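Incident log, support desk, overnight shift.

02:14 A customer reports that sequence design results differ from what the structure should imply. Their input is reproduced verbatim below. On-call engineer (initials T.W.) acknowledged and began investigating.
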């Protein structure tokens, strides 16, 4: 049996090193009010998180880890204390290394004024080893046009789709992450894959190493089997990292699965609020530093930053460089 542990999940997924947490935002926001907020106002009926006018997370600090934000459906407006900003959506990925510390803001503007505005988004917190916890902050956009998506057939001709955010599949490598990421060293075997299985399809996860941590999250669909054991939607399994494991979609609709791989960071973890370090003294120092410096401050007039509704997808970096996805 390759299953080491199984369980259910809601918005927050259980994880193993090198991951700190994974949050799944599956929200069905109503039609917009023309100002990127909900037409019915913030009545408490929907998850607004900390946004007053627009759903999302106004300016808040991080130190000591990185966030990988994967948008399946919806729009995210990014801003940070270094002056960087961006808009990404519908398949795009943002990889941000907080390093020694910065503030950032993530808002979820509601563009559609005639229909609902669904949001499907994963944010994965990937730890940094102690050597890289205090590196300079960095951020990178992985546009959907560039992220590898491997389309293939199983032994019965059923469709399999693998979106490769990190790692490798069938000899195809993911785009490079930020420069100081734990994922930058191929020996760390970091894999972030979104697998979609047609009804009746089967997919084998290949074994990598006996020290690898591996998790499978079944987040959308009806029923699957993992190593012959049945799982329903919103269930997960931790697996042996050195063994091939067969997943079958036995439900009556397509199945969507997130797979997280990685060699563990063999160091203590001290996590409190928005900071992840190796000791509690370092956590206390992070709070002292933030109180003194605000990690460089906040260059915007509001903590809740939303870009102009007419703005297309873009990424503005702290050095002033601006990039757009190809064709936009």
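02:41 Re-run completed on a clean worker. Output:
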């Amino acid at each position: 049996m390759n299953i080491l542990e199984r369980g259910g999940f809601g918005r927050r997924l259980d994880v193993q090193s090198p991951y700190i947490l994974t949050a799944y935002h599956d929200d069905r926001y109503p039609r917009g009010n023309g100002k990127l907020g909900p037409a019915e106002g913030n009545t408490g009926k929907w998850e607004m998180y900390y946004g007053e006018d627009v759903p999302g997370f106004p300016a808040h600090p991080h130190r000591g880890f990185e966030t990988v934000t994967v948008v399946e459906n919806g729009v995210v407006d990014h801003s940070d204390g270094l002056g960087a900003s961006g808009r990404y959506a519908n398949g795009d990925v943002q990889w941000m290394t907080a390093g020694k510390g910065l503030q950032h803001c993530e808002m979820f503007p509601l563009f559609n004024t005639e229909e609902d505005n669904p949001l499907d988004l994963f944010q994965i917190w990937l730890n940094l080893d102690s050597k890289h916890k205090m590196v300079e902050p960095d951020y990178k956009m992985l546009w959907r046009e560039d992220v590898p998506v491997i389309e293939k057939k199983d032994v019965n001709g059923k469709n399999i789709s693998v979106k490769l955010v990190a790692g490798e599949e069938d000899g195809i490598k993911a785009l490079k992450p930020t420069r100081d990421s734990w994922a930058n060293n191929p020996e760390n075997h970091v894999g972030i894959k979104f697998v979609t299985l047609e009804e009746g399809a089967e997919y084998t996860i290949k074994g990598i190493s006996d020290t690898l941590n591996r998790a499978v999250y079944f987040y959308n669909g009806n029923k699957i089997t993992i190593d012959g054991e049945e799982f329903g939607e919103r269930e997960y399994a931790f697996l042996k990292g050195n063994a091939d494991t067969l997943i079958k979609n036995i439900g009556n609709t397509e199945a969507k699965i997130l797979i997280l791989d990685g060699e563990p960071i063999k160091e203590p973890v001290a996590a409190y609020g928005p900071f992840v370090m190796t000791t509690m003294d370092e956590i206390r120092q992070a709070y002292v530093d933030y109180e003194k410096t605000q990690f460089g401050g906040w260059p915007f007039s509001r903590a809740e930053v939303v870009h102009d509704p007419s703005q297309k997808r873009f990424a503005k970096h702290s050095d002033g460089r601006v990039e757009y996805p190809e064709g936009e």
